[in-house]
Design goal:
Serine Threonine Protein Phosphatase 5, Tetratricopeptide repeat, DNA Cyclobutane Dipyrimidine Photolyase, subunit A, domain 3, 5-stranded parallel beta sheet, about 5% strand, globular, binds flavin-adenine dinucleotide
Length: about 400
Amino acid sequence: MPRPRLILILGDQLSPGLSSLAEGNPARDRIVMAEVREEAGYVPHHRKKLVFLFSAMRHFAARLRRQGWTVDYHGLDQGLGDLCDAVLKSAREFDAGELLVTEPGEYRLREAMKRHWPQRLSLSVRLLEDRRFLCRAETFRDWAAGRKQLRMEFFYREMRRHTGLLMEPDGEPVGGRWNFDADNRKRYDGKQRLPGPARFEPDATTRQVIDLVAEHYPDRFGDLEPFWFEVTETQAEEALAHFLEQALPHFGDYQDAMTEGDDFLFHSLLSPYLNAGLLDPLKVCEAAERCYREGRAPLNAVEGFIRQILGWREYVRGIYWLLMPDYKEENRLASHADLPWFYWSGETKMRCVAEAVRATREHAYAHHIQRLMVTGNLALLLGVEVKQIHEWYLAVCGRL
Ligand SMILES: Cc1cc2nc3c(=O)[nH]c(=O)nc-3n(C[C@H](O)[C@H](O)[C@H](O)COP(=O)(O)OP(=O)(O)OC[C@H]3O[C@@H](n4cnc5c(N)ncnc54)[C@H](O)[C@@H]3O)c2cc1C
């Protein structure tokens, strides 16, 4: 009888089709999930982000149990230091022969699992490829090899051809152009009704997590309430449907707009669900394409939306795995200034910055133009040290 295995599922791996789950056997193996101090504290994560991740993890664990899996769930209250401690605790109770993990999305964690965990656990650790992205890391490496410039636009066209998204049978892009970005630069004049994101009432599990995070991180950055994020796949699907119907038709026109008094305009707010694994990126792109094919949204909006996921999201991940670990040490402009305190307090006369920080504090979210053209651009102009601004983003809205 083969020895049972432990399967560690991370907070951004809440996908039923995950490679480690596909490899596992509910009758024989045991799942480990954990809320640990190191992951909650390697940067001062926004409290709403912690509530989202922990609550989504707890709902996913409940779902796995309903599907017949045995889940060892180590809550924050157990005070475990890091994920390896949590696996060690389960390994002691369960005579496992091996640990299976879908490869983490972060270099820090992947290296720890490869270099230190086998010894700490006295267990072989098998990392499985994360197949939830549309471009494999090695495919990106092959694409990048020998190129003078790694232009996102050319990568994106490859991905369009590869997926067939918004392509004509003759291999040409729908509408005769690959990119409608030039059409997506309208000012928001207040005439078009703003849909706002889909909001969900927190259930008992989420309420418990809100209290837990309030107790453990009383002084951490970020409002806890109101909490309206989706925390299950079903809810995330409803948020997608809400976006496709209410916002996508105008997503393109106002993609680069900013306005005072509304923090979301026509953006989808789907990044938390894509990044946690509650939504599948290809299915999201296909759903948007259907809106175009059925005349429910214009091409500039649908192409603009798909380019963000199929192009930018896949490209940024490809660059990350291509250039890490040196990438994290880069500081090409020799920027050494400290991050101004108003990035946390929001106390500045620069209204656009104050608004972006307020939105970030309230929602653990700021839309792309606020990130790129306001908080990002200002840090560039001030010569803020790359590490400091990177950790600020990671803390306040990163990975969400
Ligand atoms: C400084 C900075 C930090 C950022 N940090 C993150 C982060 O930690 N996690 C993250 O997912 N995105 C990050 N982005 C990209 C982008 O700003 C967010 O994905 C987007 O604002 C999320 O909001 P949304 O879901 O409403 O996106 P929408 O505007 O509705 O876009 C749809 C989807 O496309 C993807 N997307 C959009 N823009 C980008 C982009 N530039 N790069 C990669 N994917 C994109 C996201 O998955 C997003 O959900 C960052 C951008 C900047 C400039």
